[in-house]
Amino acid sequence: MVRQPSVAAQNREPLSRDRIIEAALHIVDGQGLGRLTMRRLGDALEVEAMAIYHHLPRGKEELLDGLVAHVAVHPAPTRAAGDWQAVLRRWAGDYRARLLTHAGVLPLVVTRRNPAALGGTAASLREVLRQAGLTEQAAADGAHALLGYVIGHAALEVRGSAAAEEAVDWDTRFTAGVDLVINGLSRR
């Protein structure tokens, strides 16, 4: 007897790298990074875990790199006629929100060597700063400082306040830090 695929299986989107990354992100967001296994991912996708390797030949390493790239790539908008500082403040707030939404991936963003994942974001920030009149070196330094600040702040925020501190208003602290970085760049 030949087994026919279910109606749900027939209507399911074909397996792809993007679909695999999205399903993995859903697992990490809902259950944490520690619960992400190829078997659990296969179950979520309703495929055998081995089918995933067709799209991710390096297996879990490639999957983790894909998660970092998916979450960490967040280019700054190109600066139209407008205030470059406002553009960067808006970008920083949006990027922080993205990192906090996918907080389970944040440890990977911080620890995995994946230059391609952050390179595009840094290049976008450098371009906004170059358009604002900063030299190439100052734009590179500024992009690095702003990117590092936002990622670092999100990591601290996820970890929670230190034992010696009382309640922390993370929004106020984040905004104050972004203002310090951007105001410092405006003096260059």
From TrEMBL:
Boundaries of every HTH tetR-type domain copy: 20-65
Pfam families linked to this entry: TetR_C_1 (PF02909), TetR_N (PF00440)
Stored InterPro entries: Homeodomain-like_sf (IPR009057), HTH-type_TetR-like_transc_reg (IPR050109), HTH_TetR (IPR001647), Repressor_TetR_C (IPR004111), Tet_transcr_reg_TetR-rel_C_sf (IPR036271)
Gene Ontology annotations of biological process type: negative regulation of DNA-templated transcription
Swiss-Prot/TrEMBL keywords: DNA-binding, Transcription, Transcription regulation
Tagged with keyword Transcription: yes
Domain Tetracycline repressor TetR C-terminal: 77-161
Gene Ontology molecular function: any one: DNA-binding transcription factor activity
PANTHER family, A to Z: HTH-TYPE TRANSCRIPTIONAL REGULATOR RUTR, TRANSCRIPTIONAL REGULATORY PROTEIN
The protein's name: Regulatory protein, tetR family
Organism: Thermomonospora echinospora
